[in-house]
Amino acid sequence: MGTGEIVGSRFAYTVEAGDTLAGIAARFAVRERTLARENHLPESRRLAAGQQIDIDDRHVVPPAPGEGILINVPQGMLFFFEAGRCVASHPVGLGRRTWQTPVGHFQVERKEEEPVWVVPRSIQEEMRRKGEKVLERVPHCDENPLGEYWIGLSIPGYGIHGTIAPESVYHFQTHGCIRMRPEDVAALYPRIAVGTPVEIVYERVLLGTASDGTIFLEVHPDVYRRSRQQALAIAKLLAANAVITTAVDCDLAAEVAAREDGIARIVSLREP
Fold first, then answer.
1. Maximum distance among all alpha carbons in the chain?
2. Is the pTM of this model over 0.70?
């Protein structure tokens, strides 16, 4: 596996009226606890309009084919490629551990604006077990969990869609579908077509190189418990990129690995 490019940056964000830590975290693809820790805030703290929050939302783009959509489950990110370049990246909400988002090669099979939610039988059964009202169809309305757009995949019942709960993005709470913030899916929807390739991968350890040669390592928790041998994964990644291995600070890499905070961190021997 080669090294990927870096998206995102470090910047100061000015809190707006109504902002919450969870909402800011979902918007910028940063774990809430990481955002709280790096700003010396308790996760329960209410934010004040005008307050400054330091954000680091840098991520490594996984290696991908030249066209289409790539979703990395542990990373909680969707990347869109055109002509071999990553031209857009967005945080996504994904399946819970007991209802996982499938990995594999798919394609866009259907696009629909103002979708009707035809409730799968498996979710109807869950509603029944919980003692909730069992729904079969939900028309387009303020209560429709699909939001304004549905991008159906070639695996039945799964798709990329909007949400009426933006703060749930960048979490693992869905029934396997890929959930996007309303403004993000609105930006992506017109750029894709039926037949667009969609690859869903499970890569929790990523190595990237910025344009100035700075080396980054990004490590995520093993949310689905599929790849627990983290140290081995990092060793293999470095071995596959022997040219840059000698420029990696092993102590910094060990710190990043232990933290598992999902942000691309500098592991170069010297920071430029």
1. 60
2. yes
**Distances from the Cα of 226 to the Cα of 42, 74, 103, 201, 209, angstroms:** 31, 10, 12, 12, 26
Q: Is residue 64 within 8 Å of 89, Cβ to Cβ?
A: no
Which whole number is the average pLDDT over 32-48? 88
Q: Which residues contact 250 (CB under 8 A, 6 or more apart)?
A: none
Neighbours of 230 (CB within 10 A): 17
* DSSP-H helix ranges across 98-177: 121-129
Displacement of CA 131 from its chain's centroid (Å): 32
- Predicted pLDDT of residue 237: 66
Domains of the chain: 93-100+107-197 (2.40.440.10), 205-266 (no CATH)
- Residue 194's closest CA among 88, 66, 107? 107
Spell out the residues 6+ positions from residue 211 whose beta carbon is closer than 8 angstroms to its own: 5
SS3 assignment, position 9: coil
User: How many whole angstroms separate alpha carbon 224 and alpha carbon 96?
Assistant: 8
Q: What is the pLDDT of residue 245?
A: 60
pLDDT digits (tens, 9 = 90+) for 67-101: 999 999 999 999 999 988 999 999 999 999 999 99
Q: 2 pLDDT band (50/70/90 cuts)?
A: very low
Token pair of 141 as six digits: 């309305």
